[in-house]
Amino acid sequence: MQPFELPAFYMPYPARLNPHLEGARAHSKAWARDMGIIGSPEQAERDAIWDEHDLDSHDYALLCAYTHPDAPAPELDLITDWYVWVFFFDDHFLEIYKRTKDMAGARAYLARLHDFMPIDTSAPMPAPTNPVERGLADLWTRTVPTTSIEWRVRFVESTKNLTDESLWELDNIQRSRIANPIEYIEMRRKVGGAPWSANLIEHAVGSEVPPAIAATRPMHVLRDTFADGVHLRNDLFSYQREVQAEGENANCVLVFERFLGVDTQQAANLTNDLLTSRLQQFENTALTEVSAVCDDHHLGPVERAHVFNYVKGLQDWQSGGHEWHMRSSRYMNGAGDAEPEDKSRGGLPGPTGLGVSAARLTLAPRPRPDSSASGLPQSTAPDLSAGKLPRAGNLGLQRIKYLTFVPFAPVGHLQLPRFYMPFTSHCNPHLEAGRRNNKKWARQMGMLDELPGVPGGYVWDDHKFDAADVALCGALINPHAALADLDVTNGWLVWGTYADDYFPMIYGRTRDMAGAKIFNARLSLFMPLDGEPVPPPLTPIERGLADLWSRTAGPLMPSSRRLFRKGVEVMTESWLWELANQMQHRIPDPVDYVEMRRKTFGSDLTSNLFRLTTCDGIPLEIFQTRTFSEIDRSAQDVACFTNDLFSYQKEIEFEGELHNCVLVVERFLECAAPEAALVVRDLMTARVEQFQHLIANELPGVLDQFALDRPARKKVATYIKGLELWMAGILVWHRSVDRYKEFELRNTRKLGHKPGSLTGLGTSAARIASLYRGKS
């Protein structure tokens, strides 16, 4: 019995089949035999990984012929060999290390694989000792001669993630631990291999992504949405095989079952909804951001052609991968109520032939199962059966619900749930002095004055500054700091909070993307790396940034200065993403929201500032490990979601804002705000628990790996304690200040202006954008 009925999939691109399929089948079988992946019946009986029947029934040549329909025959042979290797690696690792839970053997085995991928092709390789090593050595020497150094570095990194992060899966199996949804999506990209596939797409289409834009947001989003689409689809097809037959616990259907407390069918439907959302995020990015980033980096016609070939290759992979999943015997690919499969046609139910996935798309909505089947109390399980919006069907109409945001809708006070916060904070004894110094500094920077050239235009006045009481936040997250250090912390907090109010007022209401880009570009001028002169500041934001930069970054080493500036730039650039969504009236995709929220909140700025002041002398590589990255991101998400819960009414009803996790969850789950708030609270709890899990179970191994001495370990402990104080202090601050309380919000409307209009306190400041026109 199948555990659930496969949902109807959204697939906007028809699948196409490469004409060189049969040649790739014959070649890949011969290659697998040469590498020892398959062999004689006696070998198959002894090794029990794959035999010839397994290879034939999985049909990886069909996968590659569908996912790379335009590749010439030699390239298709090479790509097919890579996929035979990667799937064999996955099954080999399962049998040898996952089933036996041999963590030590797994580490040694994975460490050797890196030696078979030298960036310098003249470097020697060790002698291979098993089919995985033998296959990797052969593939590497056949692949890299035509590639750039930049491509090799990207491919090695994605291959390393694919192999090394299998230990994360193994560790969770040993602990019977199921990841939370945010952790799962991020880690699935590493262990699932789709970023690795995206690198191979560049090779297959003969179009490498130009280095100038490889690290930009559009390219990252295309790669990540492609990866999520591939992996979420695979999770639906492989649930029966992985979860029920193999004992795996890294599957999104299972993650949703456990986190939301829903039955398997409902979890499968939600996984498919997320898959659809990620595909539509891919489309939105490809259509609205790719051309713009090419323009911004002045790419020529040839480079643009490479970019668009790559995007087309990603699209072909999505549709071809779906077609293969519907045919391969490796997966569950028959609906629960489908007719018997036609085995002669590869097990594809319904219409058969080239591109038949398009024929299976329907307009019929699929109702959600009754959430009462979850067995959880209604106070914790969101009601997913009676959402405020009708389900949208399977031809991509789900995107409509993300484009129907009505600004300034009255939502009323959101009843806050109880929070899980095991950490405590106390107040810095210099609070009152810090408050006085903080307000004096803000006034000196012009943050409490009329905006230049805008008579009567304010972002903050004295009352709004006092209501925010940002100095209290600084005193709570930095309780042991001396007054001078506390003043610097408070300055950055005030600067970021003021800028967060300023930007949407000036550029959000006017939808002035050109002015916003000029504003953002100018900010880097006030953060010189080598003492370059700065231009005269035009606004309180520029004046404040110049002052803070000179006080904070001046004493830092050049490398640390670059890292710190990058943290500021990541935050300011993310405001352009918010403006783009505002211009489209588009509520963000859930995954995109979580990942961008860390940036809009200034999390990197905060983390880098604290790290640079407490962890000097500790190798930067430690903070780039998966464990440390996840520690940081977990703490960041707790802080971000705290703000979203407290600011829900302020942002949705009083500011017309659509970037709020409660709203994002409302639309994705099609539930009411109180139920969405519980889900956000549960995400916070899961991230706190993940933070604790990493500290207790993974951090000691990282410190041992880098052989840190006692003083260095003490610095790391101070950094971890700082993150705990940050999470706890931000929660206390939100509870304490008036900034988010309804009576204070209503006071801002005392002039009686119409919501959404450009009249009233501070709204005339929209004209400040004119100050930037013609300046650079």
Tell me about this structure.
The chain is mostly helical and 776 residues long. It has 2 domains: 21-335, Farnesyl Diphosphate Synthase; 431-771, Farnesyl Diphosphate Synthase, CATH 1.10.600. Helices cover 60% and strands 0% of the residues. Helix 29 packs across helix 30 (673-697). The longest helix is centred in the first third of the chain and has 29 residues, at 217-245.
Can you summarize this structure?
Helices cover 60% and strands 0% of the residues. The chain is mostly helical. It has 2 domains: 21-335, Farnesyl Diphosphate Synthase; 431-771, Farnesyl Diphosphate Synthase.
How do the helices and strands line up, and which of them pair or pack?
Blueprint: H1 21-35, H2 41-47, H3 52-58, H4 60-67, H5 73-98, H6 103-113, H7 131-143, H8 149-164, H9 166-175, H10 181-192, H11 194-205, H12 217-245, H13 252-260, H14 264-288, H15 290-296, H16 301-325, H17 431-444, H18 462-468, H19 470-477, H20 483-508, H21 513-523, H22 540-552, H23 558-584, H24 590-600, H25 603-614, H26 620-623, H27 626-646, H28 648-654, H29 661-669, H30 673-697, H31 699-705, H32 710-736, H33 742-747
Helix pairs in contact: 1-4, 1-5, 4-5, 4-16, 5-7, 8-10, 8-11, 10-12, 11-12, 11-16, 12-14, 12-16, 13-14, 17-19, 17-20, 19-20, 19-32, 20-22, 20-23, 21-23, 23-24, 23-25, 25-32, 27-30, 27-32, 29-30
Secondary-structure arrangement, i.e. CATH architecture of the largest domain: Orthogonal Bundle
CATH homologous superfamily caption of the largest domain: Farnesyl Diphosphate Synthase
Would you state the CATH class of the largest domain?
Mainly Alpha
Q: How many DSSP E strands?
A: 0
Rg, alpha carbons: 27 Å
What is the terminal-to-terminal distance?
Answer: 65 Å
Oligomer: single chain
- Helix count? 33
Fraction in helix: 55-70%
Our estimate of the beta-strand percent is under 5%
Briefly note the CATH topology name of the largest domain. Answer: Farnesyl Diphosphate Synthase
Low-confidence stretches: 335-381, 383-395, 751-776
Mean pLDDT over the residues: 85
